[in-house]
Amino acid sequence: MYAARVSIEQVEFVAAAVQDERQLDGAWHLELLAESEEASMALRLVLDREGTVEEGELILTRENADELGVIEPGAMADELDPLELELAAELGGRAAALTLVQRDDGDFDLLLELGAAQ
Questions:
Q1: In this structure, are residues 98 and 90 in contact, taking their beta carbons and an 8 Å threshold?
Q2: Measuring CA to CA, how many Å separate 68 from each of 4, 38, 57, 112?
Q3: Residue 105 contacts by C-beta under 8 Å, 6 or more apart in sequence?
Q4: How do residues 24-78 score in pLDDT, each as one tens digit?
């Protein structure tokens, strides 16, 4: 899916859910906060009952500067329980890919890959 993208930077995170709610219509609202030695990130997702991303955004903070990103809608979760998801995004004028895998303890492993500036 991301074969054509050339990654120039990777940041790994362990994230905790600060919001994890199922709505009456089956939508799943998920908000994660993560920190690494290099950066911190907030990720907000809304998935429908089948696991398709309806909307999402992320904020990456590095060196006291925030970069706002938008998740491309339409990605489908590989698994819902535990959640496994690959996302495409645009972050501060750069193409980005995000891999999200839920751990047995409920936290999430996140891998953010940033491409060259567009």
A1: no
A2: 23, 17, 8, 14
A3: none
A4: 998 999 999 999 888 999 999 999 999 999 999 999 999 889 999 999 999 999 9
